[in-house]
Specification:
nine-stranded antiparallel sheet, elongated, 136 residues, alpha+beta
Length: 136
């Protein structure tokens, strides 16, 4: 007979949350469009306190937004332990051709085209949680 395991979420500091995010290779860009949440897979790097995100989203859907949200996690199916991090802040499209070429070489992503967008997010709000067993 299997005994159910109790799980808990433990909030981590913003510094630890950024450290977890830096160690992850992929996540999801989240934004609202026409009153619905849109979630796009993405790859990222954290450089100089800025989150550089490459995602298959149309640039027009992202431009002019006051802020964007990025979410990454690592949750092991067996046991349900791991972590989750969400970062939100002002964002801007990376449109400089040289800078964009650099990040397209750096971040593996989707074929360059209308659904291949590079965004720089300046995280202002970063929240993170470790997911653990009750006894841990």
């Amino acid at each position: 007979m299997t005994v159910p395991v109790s799980r808990r979420m433990v909030e981590v500091s913003g510094t630890e949350a950024l450290w977890l995010l830096e160690g992850a290779a992929q996540g999801r860009l989240v934004y609202v469009q026409r009153e619905s949440a849109v979630i796009r897979p993405a790859v990222h790097i954290l450089q100089y306190g800025r989150l550089i995100v490459r995602t298959p989203a149309q640039a027009a859907a992202l431009s002019g937004r006051a802020a964007l949200t990025y979410h990454a996690d690592e949750i092991r199916v067996a046991g349900g332990i791991g972590w989750t991090v969400t970062a939100t802040g002002p964002a801007e499209l990376i449109i400089d051709p040289d800078e964009a070429a650099h990040y397209r070489r750096t971040l593996p992503g989707w074929v360059h085209g209308p659904h291949d967008t590079l965004v720089r997010i300046r995280p202002q709000t970063v929240t993170g949680f470790r997911l653990a067993h009750e006894g841990a």
